[in-house]
Amino acid sequence: MSQELINQTIFDFMSQELIDLKRSIMEGRYDDALAIVDEWEWMSKEQILQKIESFLVRLLVHLIKNQVEQYLTNSWAA
Q: DSSP labels for 45-70?
């Protein structure tokens, strides 16, 4: 997987909450938007880093799985 794709995946993860916030505001769901903002206010820096770490672990497992599958597929082709 290229560095560009990894960067895009991380960006997608980080921006999903912003997308949800924008969508809530645009659709007039202000209570939902405020809930998102409240969640951010309550999250400490450590919690945010733990959330990112959890995502990166899932990403690495996915990348390893893809590499193994590619290796097995290539071994059958040989």
A: HHHHHHHHHHHHHHHHHHHHHHHHHH
pLDDT per residue as tens, the chain (78 positions): 566 766 666 666 567 788 888 889 999 999 999 998 888 777 777 777 777 788 788 888 888 988 888 888 877 766
Q: Please tell me the distance from the alpha carbon of residue 74 to that of residue 78, in angstroms, as a whole number.
A: 6
Instruction: Indicate the pTM of the whole model.
Output: 0.44
Which run of H or E residues covers position 26? Answer: helix 3-26
Residues 6+ apart with CB under 8 A from 21: 33, 36, 37
